[in-house]
Amino acid sequence: MGLLQLFRRTPPSAQVAKERLRIIVAQERSARGGGPDYLPLLRRELLEVIRKYVNVDPEAVHINLDRAHGHEVLELSVALPERAKAITR
Amino acid sequence: MTEIIVVTSGKGGVGKTTTSASIACGLARRGKRVAVIDFDIGLRNLDLIMGCERRVVYDFVNVIHGECTLKQALIRDKRLENLYVLAASQTRDKEALTPEGVQRVLDELAADGFDFILCDSPAGIEKGAHLAMYFADRAIVVVNPEVSSVRDSDRILGLLASKTLRAEKGNGGVREHLLLTRYSPRRVATGEMMSVADVKEILGLDVVGVIPESTDVLSASNAGTPVIFNESSVVSHAYQDAVARLLGETLPLRFTEEPRKGLFSRLFGT
Hints:
The complex is a heterodimer.
Chain A: H1 3-6, H2 13-32, H3 39-53, E1 61-68, E2 71-78
Antiparallel strand pairs in A: 1-2
Chain B: E1 3-8, H1 16-29, E2 34-38, H2 46-50, H3 60-64, H4 70-73, E3 75-76, E4 83-86, H5 99-111, E5 116-120, H6 127-134, E6 138-143, H7 147-160, H8 165-169, E7 175-183, H9 185-189, H10 196-203, E8 207-212, H11 216-223, H12 234-246, H13 263-268
Parallel strand pairs in B: 1-5, 1-6, 2-4, 2-5, 6-7, 7-8
Antiparallel strand pairs in B: 3-4
Helix pairs in contact in B: 1-12
């Protein structure tokens, strides 16, 4: 690593690769493995409903199904844009 | 007891055939009786890497169709007397392989007293790849520290966990191992390449070997002598370590770190 690299702001590309893979692998595993097959459709329809009110990015919706202690928890998280503008209808 | 090991990856060009050849030779050098089978129907290549391409008379599909006996189709390695190669067919008919046919060949090899059967899988997730892994006891998932290869490997892990005989029967599933190829410690050090730890963390598997990037691999395939025979190459020693780990030995990883640099080169990044 040279002196110049000490001052660079962008993270090393390997770290970017790792982060991207961590997300996509987790997503694909939940799609094929434990999750029921309606999850992708549920995600899409929820996104459509949310978008009626707030303009969110498709990637801002995370849906996750956890199994613990004999019950299932459906977790939905939506990252709202910084200044969420309601869509007036 | 015969162990069936599939060498697979999903993505093409990551080093499945190079790995199959060197691991097969490595196991045979340890005194094991080994058969290595090319499952890439239509695109025969293992014979070239093993250096026996001019001795192929009958192939895997001939045996399955009953056009010859298994003994006639097995090519004995010229360097190691307890190592045999079964070449892929050049036919374009992808349906030539059948589960029953593959099982019959594997059963016959097992009855003949082979210790290890290595199945060199084709790239992709089509029929050939499916049949290469279906009867496996263990899997070596060959991966490059690169995004598309890692993602494809994860797809393969999903298939190993669901579309194999062991998974269907529910008796413990296929034992999976990671083998990293084309690893460049220098690029890992500069943050341009994911490290062994990164890949291991994403895929959640134990690492059976790390093969450094080297020009020796191309030289070996040019010559038709699996790279494990090139004792002066670090690649040979990395494969020998992988073979030892497959046989249950515990060895620390080698060739994964760059030799330490002096202050001058660190400051000026030469």
